[in-house]
């Protein structure tokens, strides 16, 4: 194939076969979020570059090297969204949504980051994001975690994910802590990898998040962030841990868990799996109590999380818990001779009127009858309906039930009853 017309590196097509599992996951996500009264919100894919720079932080990986930014025709810098929280906050401020009682939102869509593509890491990927505004006690932290836990249960992956939590305190707490961390790490600078060396001078906290085993060894001796956490964050965290136990949600306290975006504070969490190699986080979130105000809104506490859909799909596939054998076609209609085409179309429309959830296919391909029947059998349809001159004259249809391996001659109303019974429709 011509190299020029391949998709861009790290950006993939989502093909129909794979989308079955996607749809299955999306249905569960939407059902569960709705059951907690979250409302859907749809946001632009492009935003002004400056809102990401300000909110995510200038010296984060995302802003430093992962954003797809370019100038529009007027020379304004715009960016393909690398995440959804910032756009969501911009929207709720702009549309004045904060005075409403129910301030829980979800969105699903593509995000873009210029990263090194590998399994579970792409340049275009889908996130389900959820954001809650205006609730400031740890009860909502708990509910958000319970909600995500329910998602994994519904998907049948709950025994393959583990919750890690931490409290990262306030900006001031982290500022004080960073000074001590840098002091400690400088003593070991020669043992750090290139990435960590760079971060030592740009964003030292991110070193805690390093996936490099040698760096992790050094970090075992590092000062602890928990010692710097303000009293209100640490009380909140203690209460949250107690409530998680009371609700039988297992968690691991990870004192090195920090988030890659500047706007987080206090409670942070990630759901990880050991089935996906180093791309092991399927869901990540936390509180961001100062972002709304920093972006020009009134002071509003907030918490949110984002789920990487590709990683959920990979996990579900690796566990082989999803049967892909969903019938693509339920009823396959074959007409013999062009003069019977309109009967076939009419019949298919009547079936769709009566049973809108069935998948009805009319074969318009110019093939002989044997080939058409062969195609119908290969399509794994349950029922084939044959419409020929003879049958039309006599007013019946030839109906083959491929599962029963039986053939019927049925009048129209008998055919409809047969369909209803076969597919157990009301
Ligand atoms: P990581 O440490 O894996 O880079 P992150 O901290 O950058 O993750 P977030 O910005 O918190 O990730 O995004 C939330 C979730 O979105 C991640 O936990 C992951 O499941 C998914 N995700 C993030 N980046 C990518 C990507 N490039 N490709 C696929 N999924 C991604
Ligand atoms: Mg990342």
UniProtKB/TrEMBL annotation:
It catalyses: tRNA(His) + L-histidine + ATP = L-histidyl-tRNA(His) + AMP + diphosphate + H(+). One of its GO terms (biological process) is histidyl-tRNA aminoacylation. Residues 1-356 form the Aminoacyl-transfer RNA synthetases class-II family profile domain. GO terms for molecular function: ATP binding; histidine-tRNA ligase activity. Signal peptide: none annotated. Gene3D superfamilies: Anticodon-binding domain, Bira Bifunctional Protein, Domain 2. The keyword Protein biosynthesis applies. This is Histidine--tRNA ligase. Belongs to the class-II aminoacyl-tRNA synthetase family. L-histidine binds at residues 83-85, 113, 127, 131, 259, 263-264. Transmembrane segments: none annotated. Keywords: Aminoacyl-tRNA synthetase, ATP-binding, Cytoplasm, Ligase, Nucleotide-binding, Protein biosynthesis. It comes from Buchnera aphidicola.
């Amino acid at each position: 194939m011509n190299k020029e017309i391949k998709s861009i590196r790290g950006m993939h097509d989502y093909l129909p076969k794979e989308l079955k599992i996607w749809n299955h996951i999306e249905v569960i996500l939407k059902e569960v979020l709705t059951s907690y009264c979250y409302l859907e919100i749809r946001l632009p894919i492009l935003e002004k570059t400056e809102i990401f720079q300000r909110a995510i932080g200038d010296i984060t990986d995302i802003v430093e090297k992962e954003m797809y930014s370019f100038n529009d025709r007027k020379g304004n810098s715009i960016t393909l969204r690398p995440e959804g929280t910032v756009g969501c906050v911009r929207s709720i401020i702009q549309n004045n949504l904060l005075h409403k009682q129910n301030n829980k939102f979800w969105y699903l869509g593509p995000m873009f980051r210029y990263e090194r593509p590998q399994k579970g890491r792409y340049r275009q990927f889908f996130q389900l994001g959820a954001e809650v505004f205006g609730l400031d006690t740890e009860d909502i932290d708990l509910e958000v975690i319970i909600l995500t836990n329910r998602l994994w249960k519904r998907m049948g992956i709950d025994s393959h994910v583990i919750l890690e939590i931490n409290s990262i305190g306030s900006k001031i707490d982290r500022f004080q802590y960073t000074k001590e961390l840098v002091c400690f790490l400088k003593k070991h600078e020669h043992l750090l990898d290139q990435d960590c060396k760079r971060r030592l001078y740009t964003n030292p906290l991110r070193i805690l998040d390093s996936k490099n085993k040698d760096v992790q060894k050094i970090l075992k001796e590092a000062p602890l962030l928990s010692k710097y956490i303000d009293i209100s964050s640490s009380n909140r965290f203690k209460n949250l841990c107690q409530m998680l136990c009371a609700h039988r949600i297992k968690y691991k306290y990870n004192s090195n868990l920090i988030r890659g975006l500047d706007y987080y504070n206090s409670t942070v969490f990630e759901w990880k799996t050991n089935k996906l190699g180093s791309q092991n986080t399927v869901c990540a979130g936390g509180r961001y109590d100062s972002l709304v105000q920093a972006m020009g809104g009134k002071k509003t506490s907030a918490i949110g999380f984002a789920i990487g859909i590709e990683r959920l799909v990979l996990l579900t596939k690796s566990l082989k818990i999803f049967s892909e054998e969903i019938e693509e076609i339920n009823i396959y209609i074959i007409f013999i001779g062009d003069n019977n085409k309109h009967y076939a179309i009419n019949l298919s429309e009547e079936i769709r009127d009566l049973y809108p959830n069935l998948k009805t296919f009319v074969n318009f391909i110019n093939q002989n009858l044997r080939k058409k029947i062969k195609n119908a059998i290969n399509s794994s349809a349950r029922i084939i309906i044959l419409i020929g001159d003879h049958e039309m004259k006599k007013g019946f249809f030839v109906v083959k039930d491929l599962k029963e391996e039986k053939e019927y001659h049925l009048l129209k109303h008998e055919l409809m009853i047969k369909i209803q019974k076969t597919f157990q429709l009301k």
